[in-house]
Structures are given as C-alpha cells and as structure tokens.
C-alpha cells in the first residue's frame, strides 16, 4: 500500500504529517534538508512512498517542490479547492496547520494521487516570471491612467504621471528582454511552429510555452479544459441548460482569446469557420470561443506532428 506525506506550507514553516508522526520545520534551506533527512528514514523503514503532497500556497511551495523533484522524490501539488471540498465531504470543520497537514495526507491516500511530472524547465519558469511581471506592470499602469483621468489635485497628477512614466520604462525593459529571449533549442523550435499560424504572434507563442506546456502532449479536449474553454453540461431531468465554460488558466486563456480575435480576421481557415458560425445564428462571443477551441486543436496538432501551419485549400 502506498504511503503519502502531507505537508501544509506557509511562508515560515512546513507542517508535516509523515505516517503517524507530525513535525514542523522552517520553510528555508535548513528546514528542507531536515525534511529530506526525515523522508529518507521514512522510506528506509519500509514505507512505499506514493507522493509528498502539498497544496498550492501562493508560491511559498515553489522552491521546495523543485528541490524535492530535483532530488528524485515524487511530489504532487494539490488544488486547494479539491482539498477543501474533501474536508467538507468528510465533515471536518476545525482548521489548524497540524489538522491541514493530516487532511492533505488523508486526501492523498483516499484519492490515490499520482506524482506530478516536472514538465517545466528552468528556462520556461524564468520566461513565465517575466511574462507575469509584464502583466502586473500593465495592470498597474492602467490603474494609474484611470486614476489620472479623474484626478484634480496638481501634486497627485505629477505623482501619477511620474509613476506612469516609470511603468512605461519598466514594461519596455521587460518586453525587450522577452523579444531578445532565446531559450532552449526546443523552445525556439516550438516558438517557430506556433508563430507559423496566422494570428499567433511572438508574445502569444511565449505565453503558451510558459503557461501551457501540455500543448503537443495532451488531447484537444483536455487542453480546452485546462485553458477553461471546454463546454460543460447543465442539464437535469427534462431541463436542458445552456453549456458554460469555467475555470482554467487565466493567463493562457486571455492570451489565446486575443489571438482568436486576430484569427477571425487574418487566419483564412478560422475566419471562414467564424463566419459559418455567425451565419448559422451563433452569438459573436459563442462563435469566438469556438474559434479559440479550434485554435487550441490546431496548435496542438502542429506541435504533435512537428510541422508548420498550412492553409486548408479544400
């Protein structure tokens, strides 16, 4: 029987439930070494390790997870909503770090979770950090512009303008770094294949490489669900509700949405597909999301067969 280790992660500590033993270490290099030492003893005692399981904790788990994966230990980062739903199902109301560590362990053992495959390289992680920073700066800039539009105080106006100017320079620096980014040979090859599709630009391609690494490795329906554009049923008895989309990776979805919008004008295949849907009476937004799903399938197929886009002339 597989044994699972539950870890509740915070900024300062790792609360660990390892078998029947609970202990706490600091969330720093020294604590990580102590955890790995305890984990080695746990395995040498005859326990068949299924995975070390934690929740996504706003990035506090990031370096620790990479350290464990690099050392060759199976790790699974559970979705916090799934763990919380499991707690409600079991009727757990109390919440402490110790209880959460035990809860994560019980969740992992009950659901028989599998270790995550580390599919992001160090270069992809770096690229993703740059792209996230670009989006953060862009949001800050738009917020300051909105504030400036309604500001009447001269001092605050000068402050806002100075901040916007600084943000413009910071965004330009990030975009220059992304524009000059080379990455690994595999990343450059993938980028070239993705940008062969009319409507898919450099930034879109880099976003997909950083935030949708499953592209080219999964089936079309799974990718649509990962992005958050898979249609879900809403039926009960005789009631047939409207299909809806929900969840998914927001950054990848926003980028693909803008790309799909461009494709309805500049990609001959997807433009024709969009016009057929509109002619059939589909609302513009519904037709656009259908184009987005078709674009995902197209990109996935291109990466799977490792050949660039070619116009469908039939």
UniProtKB/TrEMBL annotation:
Domain of life: Bacteria
Recorded GO MF terms: DNA binding; transposase activity
Pfam families: DEDD_Tnp_IS110, Transposase_20
One GO term of the biological process aspect: DNA transposition
Full protein name: Resolvase domain protein
């Amino acid at each position: 029987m597989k044994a699972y280790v539950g870890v509740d992660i915070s900024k300062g500590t790792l609360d660990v439930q390892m078998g029947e033993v609970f202990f706490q270490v600091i969330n720093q290099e020294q604590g990580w070494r102590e955890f790995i030492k305890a984990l080695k003893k746990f395995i040498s005692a005859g326990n068949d390790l299924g995975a070390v399981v934690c929740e996504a904790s706003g990035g506090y788990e990031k370096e620790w997870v990479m350290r464990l994966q690099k050392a060759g230990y199976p790790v699974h980062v559970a979705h916090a909503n799934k763990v919380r739903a499991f707690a409600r199902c079991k009727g757990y109301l109390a919440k402490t770090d110790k209880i959460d560590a035990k809860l994560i362990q019980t969740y992992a053992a009950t659901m028989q979770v599998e270790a995550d495959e580390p599919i992001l390289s160090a270069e992809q992680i770096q690229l993703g950090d740059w792209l996230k920073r670009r989006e953060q700066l862009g949001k800050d800039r738009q917020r300051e512009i909105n504030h400036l539009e309604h500001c009447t105080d001269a001092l605050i106006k000068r402050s806002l303008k100075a901040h916007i100017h600084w943000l413009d320079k910071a965004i330009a620096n990030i975009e220059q770094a992304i524009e000059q980014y080379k990455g690994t040979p595999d990343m450059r090859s993938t980028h070239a294949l993705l940008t062969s599709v009319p409507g898919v630009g450099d930034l879109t391609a880099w976003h997909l490489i950083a935030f949708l690494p499953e592209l080219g490795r999964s089936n079309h329906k799974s990718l649509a669900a990962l992005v958050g554009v898979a249609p879900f049923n809403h039926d009960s008895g005789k009631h047939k509700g409207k299909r809806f989309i929900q969840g998914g990776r927001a950054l990848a979805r926003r980028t693909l949405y803008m790309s799909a919008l461009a494709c309805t004008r500049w990609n001959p295949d997807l433009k024709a597909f969009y016009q057929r849907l509109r002619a059939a009476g589909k609302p513009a937004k519904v037709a656009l999301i259908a184009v987005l799903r078709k674009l995902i399938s197209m990109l996935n197929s291109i990466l799977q067969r490792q050949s660039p886009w070619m116009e469908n002339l039939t």
